[in-house]
Amino acid sequence: MSVQCTVVVPTIGRPSLDVLLDALATATGPRPAELLVVDDRPAGKPLDVARDGLPPVRVVRTGGGGPARARNLGWRTARTEWIAFLDDDVVPDPDWYERLAEDLDGLPGDVAGSQGRVHVPLPEDRRPTDWERGTAGLATSSWITADLAYRRTALARVGGFDERFPRAFREDSDLALRVMDTGARLVRGRRRITHPVRPVDRWISLRVQAGNADDVLMRRLHGPDWRRRADAALGRRPQHTAITAAAVAAVAFAAARTPRAAALAAGAWLAGTAEFAWRRIASGPRTRAEVTTMALTSAAIPPLATWHWLKGVVQHRGVQTWRGLPDLVLFDRDGTLVHDFPYNGDPDWVRPVDGAREALDRLRARGVRVGVVSNQSGVARRLITTEQVEACNARLAELLGPFDVIRYCPHGPDDGCACRKPAPGMVKDACAELGVDPARCVVIGDIGADVDAASAAGAVGILVPTPVTRKSEVAAATRSVKTLAVGIENVLTGRW
Q: What residues does the Glycosyltransferase 2-like domain cover (predicted)?
């Protein structure tokens, strides 16, 4: 491919994944740089993804967390300009690779994403069922990640998918609106996938009503006109609310012993429910099983939809715009990751603080890159050598795992360099090396110089005080936490 692209497939291990991988293995055209399969199962045996003909394949695991978190781990792990998302239950056309390359090649810089075309096959010998008609709506939906490629920089700028959307519903529309709010455009390409109708049980229409809570979140985040901007139909929620209100009124009037009012309310409920059921039955195959299912679920859907909507109203009060995880967390070394032995040049004295390895591994597991920025004035003072500093840094990586970037300043306080903290040089250099916007970087350290360097670079600083931290530095810090573990928890939950 003339553009660098990674294909990301989040999966919960459905059999359809094998069909997708087989299709990708036999498709013609230039292979992407990598295929990232994100295993979103809480546990289970390793997935069998080996196929001749696939691009290089890597499997990463979330441990469970939902489709938004799985996609976030995928794009954060990738290092290419473009990220092409595919769902694990679609089948790309044989020329999908070729069309993907054509769709992405030469796109203007203001285009942040390209959506593929979706085909949903429906039965030719009968009318489609309620579930089949619902799935067919994907063919005309906007900005769905069944097949949607984004620039990695666009994803990083808005923090990726909002993980407060727990289902595969609305999280893609939310992302699209936030990306377009930056002034970027989304376009439609020529590549095509087939989205088969998955087999489901007869009660699926009841479970999908949970999405009404997600609609509340969309309104809170994007305002009352979000449906127009996202090209999302209103559906029947107003009618469901009215039918539910009629049922509640009938019960209330009956309890108050006003039978005439109770009968009128019950009649309104019955008429609304019957109209809803008939609309679903008339469009379907009208088999005995389908009619029975439509009749039963049509009585249950209005109150269930209303309940989830009210639940969303309560749950999503005061919600703020999604910030996501930072792209990079930089740590001070001595006093933050390891115990501070002044001017240490002996790798044997590199001793991690409690919880340091766990904190770093939590970030790595979510696809956040990690690095070190450390003042080492002992070099300028001729107390240690650069070789000793590098030996200690090598030991640090041996004990705490690999770092994406390590920077240290060998200068003294009076040398006037641009790298020694509180100067921003090391932070800026680390971000530049990894292609990270400093605004998406967090710096964690134990003294004021660490957070001041972050501020000067345009990054976010978090202070983790130790007994040697000055009280004035603690008082001046915008963000101060008691322990490294608390700081990492704040980063992972968007409070940074």
A: 6-123
